[in-house]
Amino acid sequence: MGADQHLDWALAKSALEWWRAAGVDVLVEDAPRDWLGTVPPATNLTESTTPFAPSEVEGRGLGAAPAARPSTSLGANGSTVGAPLDVKLPDTLADFLAWRASDAAPEAGWGSSLHAPEGPSDAKLMILIECPERDAPEALLGGPAGVLFDRMLAAIGLDRARVHLAALAWARPLAGRMPAESTARLAALARHHVDLVAPERLLLLGNAASRAVLGADVMPMRGSLQPLNHKIGQRETGVVASFALRFLLERPAAKAEAWRDLQLVMRGLA
């Protein structure tokens, strides 16, 4: 007798990938969670059909920077977002992007190519993803996820030339998972990037992007336009959190909900 030796490894792998796509990244937590409890309402929120099939809708590095005063910001749910930065970041977008592409970038030692943002710096819509796709390492957003992304943009009358597309991590981690020691710093850099672009709307695709900017996963943040106040220029961006493209590819039924998120993005956008 003994354990069943005929384990279906393909089925087990599929289940693990489903949990990963759903945002489960730890086996257990330090404190118990009330999964059946209600999500506390977010603060400072403003109130704000067809999913994307063609047949349906047809550098230069900077020297050592002086230490900056540690700073944090608050997410939409009141939680502290990110960790204090130990350097003063460039205060213009061109200089910041050059610094992000230098050896000072957190991803510089990952052994993967860095992919800079795409699209105009003055775009009214900025989109933040987690990292380049595993099946298209040569592009910021390629492969099947890139095809889906283009269809989503077409569904709301846009294309890549009219949006500012960026990634939380400019390179794909070798293991496919964001290194825990880099997460807080990448989140702080992403928020600085958003500050410099200051778009009218910001679309966050996936839990990692949502955590970086709003301090919470996608599900509690969906359905409302979240206000994001910028430190630079006293401007405000309306933020929408939605599903990761990989999740939509694996769970097509969620495209209807993602379509509602896209409609929320475009509501009131000039």
Description:
The protein is an alpha/beta fold and 270 residues long. It has a single domain, classed as Uracil-DNA glycosylase-like domain (Uracil-DNA Glycosylase, subunit E, 3-Layer(aba) Sandwich), CATH 3.40.470. It has 9 helices and 7 strands; from the N terminus they run H-H-E-E-H-E-H-E-H-E-H-H-E-E-H-H. It has helices at 9-21, 54-57, 93-100, 143-155, 180-197, 207-214, 218-221, 245-250, 255-266; strands spanning 73-74, 80-81, 125-129, 163-167, 201-205, 226-229, 236-242. The strands form 2 sheets. A 5-stranded mixed sheet has the order 4-3-5-7-6, with helices on both faces. The protein has a two-stranded antiparallel ribbon with strand order 1-2. Strand 6 (226-229) and strand 7 form a beta hairpin. Helix 5 (180-197) crosses helix 6. It is globular. The model is unreliable at 39-49 and 54-84 (pLDDT under 50).
**Low-confidence runs of at least 5 consecutive residues:** 39-49, 54-84
CATH topology: Uracil-DNA Glycosylase, subunit E
Number of domains: 1
Q: Report the top-level CATH class.
A: Alpha Beta
Query: How many beta strands in the DSSP annotation?
Result: 7
Round the Cα radius of gyration to an integer and report it.
19 Å
Query: Biggest sheet: strands side by side, in what order?
Result: 4-3-5-7-6
What is the compact description of this entry?
The chain has 270 residues and is α/β, with parallel strands linked by helices. Helix content is 32%, strand content 11%.
